[in-house]
Amino acid sequence: MNEPDDNPTSSSRPAPYGDPPQEPRPPAASAAPPAAPVEPSAPSDPPPPAAPAPAPAPTVAAADDLYEEDEFDDGPASRWVALLATIGTALIGIVTVQVLTSLVEGFALKSGQRVGIPDDLFHRIGYPFGGLGATALVFLVVGVVLVAMPSVLGELLPESQDRLVGIALVVAVAMGVIIAIGSLLAVRANLHEYSAKNVAVPSYVRVQFTNFLLGSLGAAALSLFASIATINERGRDRL
Prior knowledge:
- There is one protein chain.
- The chain is mainly alpha-helical.
- It has helices at residues 60-71, 75-108, 121-129, 133-153, 159-196, 203-238.
- The chain is 63% helix and 0% strand.
C-alpha cells in the first residue's frame, strides 16, 4: 500500500491555516494609448439671428384703411370743426334771408309811397338797406370766419357738408356785393329826401351817413375777400 505523503497540501491544512489571500493583480495594460486631455475651448459667438421675412406689401384696401385711420384719428377736433362750420353756414343763411327780404321790400314799394315825393327804383331798393342794421353785417363776417375754419385748420368735412360749405362761401360773396351796393343806395335815398324838400343836409346827418358807410362797406369788403380767399384755399387743397 502507498503511504500518505508527509507534505500537507493546501486542502489538508487546518482551518486557521488556510490559504493566504491572493494578492490583487494589476490591471492589464490597455493596448490603446490613453486619450489626450481635451482642452476647454473658448465659447463661440452665437450665430446671428436670421433676417425676418419682408412684410407683404399692403393691398389697396389696407392702404385705404390706414389712410382713413390717420385721417380721423382726431375725432373730437373734427367734430368741433364741423360744428363751427355748421354754425357759420346758418349765420350766412340768416343774412341771406334778411338781404332777400330787403330786396323784396324795395321792389314792393311804389313811387312816392314812402315819403310822398317822387323817387326812382334805386331809391326804393336802397331804402330797406338803411334799416338792415349792423347785426346782419356782424353775422355775415362771423359766418364766413366759421366756415373758413376747416380750410385754415386742415380738417376734412363730410362730403355733403363740404359741398354745403362751398355753396355758403359763394352766397357770402354775393351777399357782400349786394350789401355794399345796397348801403350806397340807402345813403342816396336819404340824401334824395333832403334834396326833394330843398333842405340842407345837417352836419350830424352827414357824419351818420359816413359812419354807416364805413361800417357796412368795411364789413362787406371783409366778408367778400375772406370768402374769396377761402374758396381759393379750398381749390388748392383739392389739387
